[in-house]
Amino acid sequence: MIPDSFVQDLLARVDVVDVVGKYVQLRKGGANLLGLCPFHNEKSPSFTVSPTKQFYHCFGCGAHGTAITFLMEHTGASFPEAVRSLAANVGMVVPEEQRSPQQQVRAREQKAEVNRHQQVLEKAQARYLALLRESQDAIAYLKQRGITGKTAKLFGLGWSGHDRSGLKQVFDNYDDPLLTEAGLVIESDDGRRYDRFRERIMFPIINAKGNLIGFGGRIIGKGEPKYLNSPETPLFNKGQELYGLWENRQGIRQEGCVLVVEGYMDVVGLAQQGIGFAVATLGTATTPTHIQKLLRTSDRIVFSFDGDGAGRRAAWKALNVCLPFLRDDISLRFLFLPNEHDPDSFVRDLGPEAFHKELAQSRVLSTFLLEELASRHNLNEAEGRAACLHEARPLISAIPASGIRTQIENDFAKLVSLTSAELLTDLARFEEAAQKRQDWQKSLPEAPAKNQGAAQDGSPFGSGFGSPFDLAPASFEPKPSARYGRAGSRRGGRQVTPLARRLIKLLASNLELVHKITDQQLEVLGFSPQFAYVREFIAFAQTTQATHLAALIQRAEPGSEIANMLTGLTIDSFDEDALPDPAAEWNDALRKIEFERLNQDKENLVAGGLTTAVDRERYKAINARIRLLK
Questions:
Q1: Membrane-spanning residues where (predicted)?
Q2: 160 with 204: CB under 8 angstroms?
Q3: Got the DSSP string for 300-360?
Q4: Diameter of the chain by CA atoms?
């Protein structure tokens, strides 16, 4: 692993303007720089780079991040690859955290294993490509589906042949266990071996780095299953991969949208017709990992399903997985085609223009959610509305605090004849009960951790801190989520007021203040629970070596609420002028907090009658402190 201290040091030396400027032509625009966004097709520049915050943001498509993030998203580099590339540019050598000899041996073995799997897959792919050129049946099938040689080359389509052991032609040792581990050969119970893929059009599956990790095969004659994937291997996990994401990456950026379909041929067929922004799940239901990958690719996702019962059930499952990832700056939609069509056949029969019209009329997630809930219950009777509310509680509670959640709550309240306030009260009781159940489960000695993605102590900041900025679960599971009302936000009964958020924003934008905070100021922040988040943010920031806001975001647990909040603060402050004296602003805010608290204490003492000597001494001390503050 790369030490976090090195990453912070690297971000202090690297200029995001230089990194982005290698790929995007930037021009001065006030305190920031502007350019055409490299992540979507635009004619007017909405892509902004901040030299002071070391952060980029596109106000058109929502892409944002640090210098490291930019390389990862724009070039497809992994985190270590991006760090090493930036380090090389500034003359730094990436250290590796000290590992035991056993760990080093294991790392070398894993790398060697990946390389061996990669090599056998590449050799198999070369054979499949050669066989396609020789097979008139396979070529005829592709032509029948409207696929040209150019499109077949783009997606690397091949043909497996008819031979049960055709891969003997390319592998001298057909009995090599590596062939079964890579998913190319199956060994039966009696020890006989044969090729996994026969009589199938072959679709190579490429990961985000452009590496071949597995295959999908579509049979062209009679037989089952129609589609067959590689099994789980050290390289391939179908619940984490999306077919076509690599091949259509440019089309997705240009369209500003990604279309999720069900089959390989849909992806290829749509690309043939000029709709080059589709991907497909690999014979499995949509997973949280799929959603995370899709949202890194585009902020507009359309799921396409058949309009029959099975299609709607699949869409409902996808909706459930999407709920914890909802944000105000993304669009999730559902497209239901006529029963007699899949996306490929629809476009071939009716044309791309008709398909784009269907896309424009796709249902937004909120509409599909409410329509589906309404269709399952009789809303003309109290019992039906109560049953609908019972089903909706865990769904709404899975949505993170956001404007879209508020909109859904308001619309759903009308659906079940409640006021918005009544619904919020009901959801608060449900979330409180769910939190108590979760706390009880965590108290059990052998209870497994619910949130696999957080730090071991549950903190998105990193080891050693609590988790007030807890993120919604990575997979759908009823769990109370943060609630943001007009007065602020709350989590587990604690308030995050607008004042607390302003204090965090002030500190995050002026990190030098964090290291000058006095014990007395921390004591002032301890007067009220509403400033607990501020104290925990200070503790988090003081442990980092961050010199600017982007470095602080990089240090936060990826995807955590603190990272999301800091990102939001960064984006909101892009056009703000720097404060002339941030230290004075901070000190003034702390004085006001202390002043208000002292006045409240004074009123409480007076209301109590000042009957004891201790109360009278306390009253005098408060007056003296108030005079000093004034």
A1: none
A2: no
A3: EEEEEEESSHHHHHHHHHHHHHHGGG--TT-EEEEEEE-TT--HHHHHHHH-HHHHHHHHH
A4: 103
User: Can you give the length of the chain in residues?
Assistant: 630
Instruction: Write down the CATH number for the domain with range 248-370.
Output: 3.40.1360.10
Q: How far is CA 130 from CA 145, 247, 312, 493, 498, in A?
A: 20, 21, 40, 65, 65
Rounded to whole angstroms, how far apart are CA atoms 436 and 429?
11
Cα atoms in the Cβ-side hemisphere of radius 13 Å centred on 402: 22
For the stretch 405-458, pLDDT in tens is 999 999 999 999 999 999 999 999 999 888 888 777 666 665 444 444 334 344
- For the stretch 538-560, pLDDT in tens is 888 888 778 888 888 888 877 66
Q: For residue 214, give the H/E element and its range.
A: strand 212-219
Which CATH class for the 498-629 domain?
mainly alpha
Left, alpha or beta for 334 (phi > 0: left; psi -120 to 50: alpha)?
A: beta
In whole angstroms, give the CA distance from residue 499 to residue 200.
63
- What is d(CA 532, CA 75) in angstroms, rounded to the nearest whole number? 40
Neighbours of 239 (CB within 10 A): 14
DSSP code at position 172: S
Cα gap 260→611, rounded to integer Å: 73
Asked whether the domain spanning 498-629 has the same topology as the one spanning 248-370, the reply is: no
DSSP 589-607: HHHHHHHHHHHHHHHHHHH
Give 359-384 pLDDT, tens digit per residue: 999 999 999 999 999 999 999 999 99
Neighbours of 318 (CB within 10 A): 23
Specify the pLDDT at position 475. Answer: 33
CATH architecture observed for domain 4-90: Alpha-Beta Complex (3.90)
Please check the confidence at residue 114 and state whether its pLDDT lies above 50: yes
* pTM of the predicted model as reported, rounded to 2 decimal places: 0.63
Tell me which residue has tokens 């590339």.
85
pLDDT at 191 over 90: no
| 3.10.129.10, 3.40.50.850, 3.90.980.10, 3.30.70.20: CATH of 107-229 | 3.90.980.10
The encoded tokens of residue 144 equal 């029948």
What average pLDDT does range 587-613 have in this prediction? 84
Distances (CA, A) of 393 to 260, 311, 396, 481, 488: 27, 24, 5, 12, 22
Peptide bond into 3 cis (omega under 30): no
Which two structure tokens, joined as six digits, stand for 134?
């020789």
User: What residues does each domain of the chain span?
Assistant: 4-90, 107-229, 248-370, 377-440, 498-629
